[in-house]
Amino acid sequence: MGSTGFFLICLLHSVVALTCGALMMFYTNDFNVFGHGTEIARKLQGSTPHDQLLIRTSDSFSGLLLFAIGFLLFMVAFIKDRGFQSFFAKGCVLLHVTMAVWRIYFERKLEYLARDWPRQVVGDIALALSWVFFLVYSWREKYD
């Protein structure tokens, strides 16, 4: 028997990943302006045509990967096995915490992104906590 909380969390994360992935693929510059501001978005585009092409290609592939992750989360939402749900949630917590640590130790050192990392770390921790709440809820449900 599956959990409704797992289904809802997966759908929420799926919608976020699908939306961000599509925006990264098709509206990269607008996405960067929204996330970092006009001046930094201009600096993130690159200075030479070759750099700009590499950066656009990289952003497009990153968006495609994020879109695929969103689609995977959508499919996983329909799995009813509690053991798998618990395993998957633990993996997602580990992934989000690792991303927050990466932002703290690496991204804060980048000159153009230095002011954005605290906000992104808070987002990573919030996403990890959504999975932790599911784990606590499922653990309490199991032993009550």
Automatic annotation (TrEMBL):
Database matches in Pfam families: DUF7865
Keyword set includes Membrane: yes
N-terminal signal peptide: 1-17
Keywords from the UniProt entry: Membrane, Signal, Transmembrane, Transmembrane helix
Transmembrane segments: 61-80, 87-105, 117-139
Residue stretches making up the DUF7865 domain: 1-132
Protein name, UniProt field: DUF7865 domain-containing protein
Organism of origin: Liquidambar formosana (Formosan gum)
